[in-house]
């Protein structure tokens, strides 16, 4: 739905904001300034009050929640593609964004316009002011998304739960399905004590009869998820084992996310819809009706002329085209690889991607620009081990540069990029410290072959944003 239609449906509340609605820039400033202003308990209470005031919008749209440590955005992206192929209108709330808040709100592969975004934000903020509520950005964005999906009458909304461990606002919803990508130990502050707590927070999303499916490979984690699902009366589904058949090199990198997305879409189409979809020749997911007797000659002829598309064929035609999440810019000179890997597990995956690219086309020079916003002591030790293992078999250099966290992201001001550089050097890996991204990028470019070299930019969403800003791009 276009922004003009949204504006007609939203009730304007000029009087609640001193006679003046906020414009787009003012909304962005407001959101930037209101991250984490409340405790998670107060944020949840605020979300419940707003939900009621806005007409219980949390219950008006079918919800699929995607949680975990890594691969959430990609899983949501793949699941939306599959569901759209079934003829469903799909909305997505991504988290986090890289350049603009608009990136978070997507319906039918179309990002929300500035006008529609502003109207939605004003509706939510003015309602909160009328109720005299202290409101934080997580709550605002969540309520905006639910309102956006309601107004656009989407068939299903996929919500990426950015950090269920900190803020579980999405528990106000009654999701049809909860998908858990992976629970990665190094992503948590106190590994041993908090892994189960993290799983518990995620499982708070589940209600009675909610389907639960996971792509996590840790047996202990899966067993605990299953126990919690049983306690809640949720429906536990066997976890994902196989990789979806994506094209090289994406099968090894993103095959498990795609496999989880396939299971999400299959469950939703066959188990969660109020009216099961017709198992026609156009569906690649719906259960096929059992045919009695032999097909007629005419039916055979039509099947040969119009072969049914399969899920495997779907994956062969599908690529990861999400900006900043393993985005290969192979037309640039040298080739640029962007990935917002922000923890050890994600870093391992992107380095695997570099190896696979090297197998496909031998690289003549590799520079890795690392830009972390926060690294715990445990993560630092593991990062160094990962880099040491990688550079035993691959030649190249690391350039570390400081970055500032995007609004709403974790940031550790005490983290020193020069200290990390020295630690990398101590393992006999070629490394340099840069004072800013521009310097780091120029060093990286000059050290690799223009035609066959590779510059990997990773470590956080912030470093990916730095690249786009350096290129003069304000919206992706």
Which overall shape is indicated by the principal axes computed on the Cα atoms?
globular
Q: What is the strand content?
A: 5-15%
| Rg for CA atoms | 23 Å
Number of strands: 14
Oligomer: single chain
Task: Give me the number of helical elements.
Answer: 16
Distance linking N and C termini: 20 Å
Mean pLDDT level: 87
Taking strands numbered 1, 2, ... along the chain, how are they ordered across the largest sheet?
4-3-2-5-1-6-7-8
Share of helix, binned? 40-55%
Class derived from helix and strand content: alpha/beta
**Low-pLDDT runs:** 1-7, 11-19, 186-193
H and E order: HHHEHEEEHHEEHEHEHHHEEHEHEHEHEH
Largest sheet: 8 strands, mixed
Quick structural summary:
With 476 residues, this protein is of the alpha/beta class. It is 43% helix and 12% strand.
Key features?
single chain, 476 residues, alpha/beta, 8-stranded mixed β-sheet, 6-stranded mixed β-sheet, 16 helices
Please tell me about this protein's structure.
With 476 residues, the protein is α/β, with parallel strands linked by helices. It is 43% helix and 12% strand. It contains 16 helices and 14 strands. The strands form 2 sheets. Strands 4-3-2-5-1-6-7-8 form an 8-stranded mixed sheet, sandwiched between helices. Strands 9-10-14-11-12-13 form a 6-stranded mixed sheet, with helices on both faces.
Task: Explain the layout of strands and helices.
Blueprint: H1 3-9, H2 24-33, H3 40-53, E1 63-67, H4 72-85, E2 90-93, E3 105-107, E4 110-111, H5 114-130, H6 137-151, E5 156-160, E6 177-180, H7 191-203, E7 211-214, H8 219-232, E8 235-236, H9 250-272, H10 297-305, H11 311-316, E9 325-329, E10 335-339, H12 344-360, E11 366-370, H13 377-393, E12 397-400, H14 417-425, E13 431-433, H15 437-446, E14 454-458, H16 461-470
Parallel strand pairs: 1-5, 1-6, 2-5, 6-7, 7-8, 10-14, 11-12, 11-14, 12-13
Antiparallel strand pairs: 2-3, 3-4, 9-10
